């Protein structure tokens, strides 16, 4: 789950998806897919081969003035492990000072529930 994505971040995410064992669901939740549609389309074959489901979290604000979004960056491995932090999936991911935590056990359930809720109100799409 990331609001920002570029080519370097995409390659990193695809490596993470590729290293997941068979049978593991692979989901990528983005914000405003139109901003990165060309990048997503360029990696269409990789998404399909890995079975990655894409979600666009870009919903109208309840007030009607703009949209609701997220700023969280999450890598949810399963119901046991998760990363939650500030590192965007962009070029500077490996060279900027970011902050994050690796969570294990019970706190991961809250992260998993939040990601599930975001996916529930997101638009699933394909490229």
UniProtKB/TrEMBL annotation:
Report TM segments: none
SUPFAM superfamilies per record: Phospholipase D/nuclease
Q: Which domain of life is it from?
A: Bacteria
* Residue ranges occupied by any PLD phosphodiesterase domain in the UniProt entry: 66-89
Give me any GO biological process, just one: phosphorus metabolic process
Q: Which InterPro entries match?
A: PLipase_D/transphosphatidylase
Q: Which GO terms describe its molecular function?
A: catalytic activity
Q: What is this protein's name?
A: PLD phosphodiesterase domain-containing protein
Q: What's the source species for this entry?
A: Roseomonas acroporae
Q: What is the lineage of its organism?
A: Bacteria, Pseudomonadati, Pseudomonadota, Alphaproteobacteria, Acetobacterales
């Amino acid at each position: 789950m990331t609001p920002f994505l570029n080519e370097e971040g995409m390659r990193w995410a695809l490596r993470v998806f590729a290293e997941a064992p068979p049978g593991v669901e692979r989901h990528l939740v983005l914000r405003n897919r139109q901003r990165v549609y060309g990048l997503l389309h360029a990696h269409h074959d990789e998404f399909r081969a890995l079975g990655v489901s894409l979600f666009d979290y870009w919903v109208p604000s309840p007030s009607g003035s703009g949209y609701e979004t997220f700023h969280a960056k999450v890598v949810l491995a399963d119901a046991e492990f998760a990363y939650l932090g500030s590192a965007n999936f962009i070029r500077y991911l490996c060279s900027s000072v970011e902050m994050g935590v690796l969570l294990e056990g019970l706190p991961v359930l809250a992260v998993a529930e939040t990601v599930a809720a975001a996916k529930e109100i997101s638009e699933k799409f394909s490229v």
